[in-house]
Fold this protein.
Amino acid sequence: MKNESSVQTREVSPGRLAWGRFVSNRVAVVCLGFLVFLYVCAPLAPFIAPYGATVNNLEQSFHPPTPLHFADARGGFSLWPSVKGTTLTDRANTKYETVPGTVYPLKLFPRGDPYRLLGLIPCNRHLFGVEAPGRIFLLGSDQFGRDVFSRLVIGSQVSLTIGLVGILIVFPMALLVGGIAGYHSGWVDTGIMRVSEIIMSIPGLYLILSLRSSFPTSLSSTQVFLMITVIFSFIGWAGLCRVIRGMVLAEREKPYVLAARGLGQGHFRTILRHILPSTFGYCIVAATMSIPGYILGEAALSFLGLGIQDPDTSWGLMLAQAQSHRVLVSFWWILSPGFAIFAVVLAFNFLGDGLRDALDPKMKDNR
Amino acid sequence: MKTYILRRLLQMVPLLLGITFLSFLLMSLAPGDYLDTLRLNPQISAERIEEMKRQFGLDQPWYWRYFLWLKNAVCLNFGYSFQYKIPVWDLISARLFNTFIVALAAMVFAWTIAIPLGVIAAIKRGSFFDRLSGFFAFAAISIPEFFLALLALWFALVSGWFPVGGLYSVDYDFLSPLGKVADLAHHLVLPTLVLGIGGIASLMRLMRGNFLEVMRAEYVTTARAKGLDERRIYFKHVLRNAINPLVTLFGYSLAGLLSGAFLVENVMGLPGLGRLTVEAFFAKDVYLVMASVVMASVLLILGNLFADLMLAFVDPRIRYEK
Amino acid sequence: MSEETILDVRNLRVSFWDRGVEVRAVDDISFTMKRGETLAVVGESGSGKSVTAMALTRLLPEPPARYQGGQILFRGRDTLSMAPAELRAIRGARISYIFQEPASSLNPVFKIRSQIAEVLRLHRPEIRDHRTEIIRLLDLVGIKDPALRLDDYPHQLSGGMQQRVMIAMALACQPDILVADEPTTALDVTIQAQILALLRDLKSRMGMGILLITHNFSIISGIAEKVAVMYRGKIVEFGPAAEVIRHPQHPYTKALIACIPKMGARQRRLQTIDHEAIA
């Protein structure tokens, strides 16, 4: 016998196989790691940010990023990084100059702006910072002298959660409605499909705008957040529901489902136990792939001034300041939230791609 | 085929009813109305406000207003804009052309680049080019369009090579016909790039996927067994089959671009439908917003119909007859 | 029938490589075909018979396929060492193919006329009047009203008709060998008989050899002069058809023949092959 190796095959569960395929995709694993890191950081954002998101200082409007120096007060070399003090020298052109001799060494866990850790525990320690008159602006400051890095870190909470909350609402809904529509074709199916058609026939951003209009213009940030998830769920279920319906429709006629029915299993149980699990792989991939949509949607709404409002922070809102040509040309660091959105969305796209290859090996050859 | 088109057009009627009803409902759920800003103006008397309220029909309940609007819309009368005091239709038709030009340019740009790139990536699968283009595609679909627009604007400002915002120069009306075309083309470069890049990425990946799939089809083996050379196999037998599914995208993505230009129009200051709608939205200019939504939806639906017809045209297996 | 040997396969070995793992599909096989002779290669799925057929003109995609050794001498020239252009001149002209699934073997977006014309244009450039020649070919394979069928697309024809079109395409250049890879498997039983009858008829009229690949012993009698039985990539039995069927030597051949359901035989179960016993 030549095929001796084939004799020694072990039984491996499909889940393990999928995991093995996923791990072999290095880019996807790196992206997963990156996202896990961000999600761990997000709840700790007020701690990681050196300043509060709303703390402004009009004397330091559009301050450029403060470089880290490795020198002590006398100008000698020092291993410990520090920043130099600056003053506004030209108010008209927003020019800053360093004040000679002012050195503020970086401090770990200094006291700073108060916040509530995880929204509960009052706290005023930050991961890093500098002594009071000096300020550290890793990514510069914005129009109102607020630290862009702090706002970026705290704003990540919005972008990172909006997608997860969105899919947690949309997917159960789409699975249920799509499952019912596909299984019981008839007037239920027709009705659901017509409604979803209407929703899908209105171009996305116009629909978002219409939906947005039914809410008051000024809302608190929490309310805005809830509103955005409701809007996106209202739009998102339609397309997904149709796909799931299609899959259920195809699956319904498969012999194993007919067999389950023939053995006397009830409708609900058949849908739940036999049909929906077959859509599982698709759902995981589709969920991952749909998260960028939520992130981009929130950013777009906030960018237009219809989402999160100042002084609260979100990546889209931060970018709105860049709409002024003067800001765009002179203060490049205002664009940094755009790169953050890009990085997170890219990571989700790569992760989704890796998951698809892992969960649907048939597709792999085409990618 | 004619009956099919007719049936599809008839299906549009309930769909449009649903769309308009939904948008009207949502718009009227909104707190406040167009007159809110005028009320804050001390120079306008309360009586005048009341008069305008009656004049605009804002004292009627929303369903009655919807009914009236619908009655007029059937006769293609979409009402007057509160802000501009001219028929909504005049405003929209002027802007629609601009949006259409930009969308069309982006589309042509995307297709001419994406199809060859996708084919090359498929033929040279696993090569450096394939991996590079794959990475580029992922990056391109991950950039928020309005951020890309900001970057383009930044580039225009810093380099000075391209006009900043707008579609026409100030002296556009005084240019020769050729000069007008050149001026428009100059203004179109950056918006086309910004709107087209996302399209290139997704189209390219789709083309590559389809091409690879068709390459494994049995009729490709047949073609090879006939003695055809690889070039003719790829560009005749494979390409024709691989491109068919993309044809459906053609109509869809044109309509998608019309509404996708929304944010880009706002950032780059293009006088298009999207920008008009956003401004009208902020001013609570209800009829203008309604008309834009209807317009965009009609374009989307017609785009889909057009796509289905195109598919029937290129794929002999599909015939819409019943 | 001349005694000229037209095809001589010597020690052919073909493997498929997937991420460093070798799967031997064809493992050191040799056989010969004389001009105008029909050889049936019989075996179950995965025995390597289709790979052998495809290997004759290097049709297998490389990678994953790799020709590990041996020679395929067609009229004394080794196809495995030919230049691509030379190989293309043989494909479809001297050695032509028909496949199992006529529905997916014809390109769905081209009319049958243009698919046949393609072969003519490629291998018989001297023909001016394609239309007449295509009608003649369609008539030859028993398609009624061929002139009316010219502008049909493949999906407008029945399975049997599609296979006839495939045969017409394969015969366009009067090949020396027609490789028929499971030509009847996807067809209804009545159509199967018609297609086999057609092949038998064409063979005697045109004097071409047929390499008939099949898993079904019952269809080869009356058409094949010789039989090669393949099992796990090897030829386990080779000889005149009548001889092999009447006196099978190898246990696998015996088992295969025993699997043919016989008319009137009182069997409660169909016979299956016990691989443990053979290996």
